[in-house]
Structure formats: C-alpha cells, structure tokens
Amino acid sequence: MNDRPDQPGLRPTTSEASVPSAPAERGPYRVVIVDDHAMFRTGVKAEIGRSVAVVGEAADADRAIAVILHTQPDVVLLDVHLPGGGGVEVIRKVHEKNPDQKFLALSVSDAAEDVIGVIRAGARGYVTKSISGSELIDAIRRVAEGDAVFSPRLAGFVLDAFSGSIDLATVDEDLDRLSQREREVLRLIARGYAYKEVAKELFISIKTVETHVSSVLRKLQLSNRHQLTRWATDRRLV
Questions:
Q1: What superfamily would CATH give domain 30-163?
Q2: Who is most buried in 15, 64, 151, 235, counting CB within 10 A?
Q3: pLDDT tens for residues 81-90?
Q4: Which of 46, 82, 38 is nearest to 64 (CA)?
Q5: CB 125 within 8 A of CB 151
C-alpha cells in the first residue's frame, strides 16, 4: 500500500513542503541612542531595553553617523545638541546615504528653532526628556511604523510653522549668524538667567558669557538685554 504525502498523520519532507508559512511576528524594534551624556544613555537603555533592542549608541556627531549607517536601526533617538555638530547635521549626513532612516529627536530643549530645525532636516518626531519610559517606547513604535510624534506643546510649533504664524525664513537667517554656543547663551539670557547663572549652567567663565552676549547683540543688531529677550520671545525660542 502506497501512502500519499498528504495523508493525515504524515509530514512532508523539506522538498515536498510547498505551502508558505505564516509571516513571522515582528521582533523588537532596533534602536540607536545618540546623546553626549553617558548616564542619560544608560538610563534610557534601562527604561526601554526590555521592549526594544538597543543596537548602538554614540556621544558625538561623527560617531553617531558611523554607528547609524553600520547598524541600520529602525529608529534613532537623537539629541539636538552634540559635540562635533548638531542633530540636524547627523540627520542630513545619514540621509545622504540612507534617506529612509527614521529619527526621533529626544532633547531637553523645547525651543522652537530646535524643534523646527530637526523636523525640517527630516526627523519624524520630537519629544522632550521629561517623557516617561512607556511613552517613549510608544513613540519609538509609532515612528518606526511611519507616524509623526510630538510632545503636545511642541506640536504647536510645527503647526504654526506650516500655517505661517512663525516666519521661518527670518528665524533661520538671524540664527544662522550665531554660533551654537551663542544660541545657548541667548536662550538662557532670554529666560532671565544672570550672567553668573549662565556661566555655571554652561561651564564657562562670566567673562566668556559677557563676550558671547556682546557678540549676539551685535549680530542681531540689538541694543540691550531687554530687546534680546523680546526678540527671542517673539520667535518662540524660549
């Protein structure tokens, strides 16, 4: 008696198996963390490590670009301000090689020019470091699946930018005159920090703060600290 291959109770050999198997379940999303503070990276990995696969990390722009291009993660968690170049530069350099790479900005900064800058560069979302671990995991998933994700307050910046409420051309033109350090000093001064407090926050001398403030006022053609604060507030930089 000849048994048929499809008879109940018989298993086909490898060569006989022609029915396609069900697609495998999607594994954990692969993530690279880019931030210049090692303790922060460690904390993020502890928060999200059971739900996503952290496949790389970097502390500066050059290393970030190399790690991202090598690992090809689903999502890059990217700080805005980095040694060796900002998050915008990382996005642009990576997208030259891999235009499909997805970025989610994760930053302490909630300044409008930072939010708008990285979104214009190609990031899919922007959340602040006050986000909870579960919220961050959900944001990673959504960005990996093609959604755009923003912290509620930051979404307003993006909507205003597209609606024309913020003159992006003017903001970019003026800010392009300032160095990264001058922008940091500008934001802190506009938030009411004294020179001594700015120096402590940025780990520079008071004399250096004074030099940066003078340079900012000159480049923006402003006369005093009050005008500088109003200029930054009008552009939602604080």
A1: Response regulator (3.40.50.2300)
A2: 64
A3: 887 778 888 9
A4: 82
A5: no
